[in-house]
Amino acid sequence: MEQEINIKIINAVSEIDIVYKSKVKASLRPKILNSKDAHAIFLKYWDENKIELVEQFSVMFLNRANKVLGIYQMSTGGITGTIADIRLLFAAALKISAVSFLVCHNHPSSNISASKSDRELTAKIKRAGELLDIKLLDHIIMNADVDYYSMADDGLI
Questions:
Q1: Containing H/E element for 75?
Q2: pLDDT digits (tens, 9 = 90+) for 29-54
Q3: Total-model pTM
């Protein structure tokens, strides 16, 4: 009887498969040289119907040559905030073998200044990345007016 129960338990274990399939040839991936490049790519993939309505948080993952592996639309929140679960961020980073990444969120108010909570979240993400040897390159805050603020350009990263 005990052996039968063990077989049932063994068959109840989920299998985990880690897969990353790119739709873009490596030679065609854009290279990030600065915050302007990153902002342009984030803006292209942002939901323009929501940029003035709700906060959203996205992550851009890069390979060792600073070429874009992909963009992860991580969360959509409310008028004054969104959740950036760093466990989900790093689960995605590890899945695609990212070497570095940039994060970006919008401010529907059009004020692109970094709040205290923006700076605290950035520090927390940076520390987690250091533990995993995945480097945070920048945190960009943008608005619908195509303005942006780069924490890296301001020396905060």
A1: strand 68-76
A2: 999 999 999 999 999 999 888 999 99
A3: 0.86
Please count the structural domains in the chain: 1
CA nearest neighbour of 93 among 105, 82, 102, 104: 102
Most confident of the ranges 1-5, 17-21, 70-74: 70-74
Task: Look at residue 48 and tell me if it is in a domain.
Answer: yes
pLDDT band at 3 (very low <50, low <70, confident <90, very high): low
What is 115-157 written as a DSSP string? Answer: PHHHHHHHHHHHHHHHHHT-EEEEEEEE-TTS-EEETTTTT--
Do the beta carbons of residue 72 and residue 103 sit within 8 Å?
no
List the domain range (segments joined by +) for residue 43.
26-150
HSE, side-chain direction, 13 A CA sphere, residue 57: 19
Q: What is the pLDDT of residues 72-88, one digit of tens each?
A: 999 999 988 899 999 99
Q: How far apart are CA 27 and CA 155, in angstroms?
A: 31
Give the domain CATH number at 76: 3.40.140.10
Closest CA to 156 of 72, 44, 35: 35
